[in-house]
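Handoff note, outgoing to incoming analyst
You'll be picking up this chain. Sequence as last confirmed:
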Amino acid sequence: VDGAFAADKITKVPVHFAKGASSATLKGSFKGYDSVEYTVSARAGQAMSVRVTGSGNANYNIFAPGNLPGQSEAMGSGFVGGDWQGKLPADGTYTVQVYQMRASARRGEAVPYSITIGIK
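Most recent structure output, in case you need it:
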């Protein structure tokens, strides 16, 4: 078991769309085993799309309402060049966790990226 988990920094970012917009693009960066969790409210039956650009080390997982990274299985995942989209199963707050794989995290690599989250 990796002893670094307790020290991991998790940055939580609520996502709000501009009036009339159905998506938002945010820039972020983290390094090592840190991660960023974007939260967005949506309703059952809506479609969500997620796209990440920038560092090839940026990966992401999507969690349904009530499910949390590290405690639950992701309902979806992706990477730079691997966009995700799907219909949402429930009303509530969805979490999109951006992180990097263990090999590059171990080297403490910095991961600059942009993420676009859309709901329609």
